[in-house]
Amino acid sequence: MRIDVVTIFPEFFQVLDVSLLGKARQRELVDARVHHLRDWTSDVHGTVDDAPFGGGAGMVMKPDVWGRALDDVLETGAHLVLPSPAGVPFTQAMAAELATEPQLVFACGRYEGIDARVPQHYADAGFRVSEVSLGDYVLNGGEVAAYAMIEAITRLLPGFMGNAQSIVEESHSDGLLEYPSYTRPASWRGLEVPDVLLSGHHGKVAQWRHEQQLERTRERRPDLLPPEA
Ligand code: ADE
After folding, report:
1. Nearest Cα to Cα of residue 83 among 111, 108, 116, 120
2. Mutate to test the pocket of ligand 1, among 114, 131, 134 (most ligand atoms within 8 A of CB)
3. How far apart are CA 30 and CA 98, in angstroms?
4. Which residues does the annotation place in the binding site?
5. Atom number, ligand 1, closest to the C-alpha of residue 136
6. Do 30 and 103 touch, CB atoms closer than 8 A?
7. How many CA within 13 A on the CB side of residue 195?
8. Does ligand 1 have an atom closer than 6 angstroms to the CB of 41?
9. Do 108 and 142 touch, CB atoms closer than 8 A?
């Protein structure tokens, strides 16, 4: 999979070199490229933003600069992703969908966002375009959100994970939160591992884990459960 990131903070994405994602890049499972938006500016100051039409606080990122950058970076069939607190919520299902795309281009906005004609233009031009929010809070820009999405997406690529079963069993893959996990020692600071996990009875373990998933989800994320009949 090809991933391009356009940002005014390319150094932030040194994070792409480390951990499992770094290894996936070495193995050429992921071809990730980071671009400095200012390379597409046309004035000596490298201006990327301007005051909003209609007034108000903050600055808006200029469509002409973004247009030149994205014209160069987007290839046929690419999916353009704009992290934004005003986007649709990012979910595990969306991560799975995006993991099937040939090229993802993340356009990281700062300040009050990118001129709204930019996503409109590329959607009109036939690209898939998604404005996506990491959650109901505001970050300083799209960089952290883009990295979180890249991590959630790339770990779903075939061959990325050593243990494919751990993807099948984790939180959200079946719409529920994951069950609690324990390892040795069986007794720690007066706290005991639930007996059923030491029983060696696979059927009972599976049933207990499913009950724990339901209980956790009811307590922490009731919004994930279907409405009761
Ligand atoms: N940029 C700023 N806040 C954001 C959020 N919550 N999600 C995605 N991008 C953002």
Report:
1. 108
2. 134
3. 13
4. 109, 134-139
5. 6
6. no
7. 0
8. no
9. yes
Q: Which of 152, 11, 167 is nearest to 83 (CA)?
A: 152
Place of tokens 């108000």: 56
Each of the 229 residues of the chain gets a pLDDT tens digit; together they read: 999 999 999 999 999 998 788 888 889 899 999 999 999 999 999 999 999 999 999 999 999 999 999 999 999 999 999 999 999 999 999 999 999 999 999 999 986 899 999 999 999 999 999 999 999 999 999 999 999 999 999 999 999 887 666 676 777 878 999 999 999 999 999 999 999 999 999 999 999 999 999 999 999 999 999 887 5
pTM equals 0.94
Q: List the residue whose alpha carbon is closest to atom 10 of ligand 1.
A: 84
Q: Which of 213, 216, 224, 1 is nearest to 93 (CA)?
A: 224
Residues in the chain: 229
Which residues is 3 bridged to in the sheet? Answer: 32, 104
Return d(Cα 128, Cα 105) in angstroms, integer: 10
Pocket probe for ligand 1: among 138, 147, 151, the residue whose CB has the most ligand atoms within 8 Å is 138
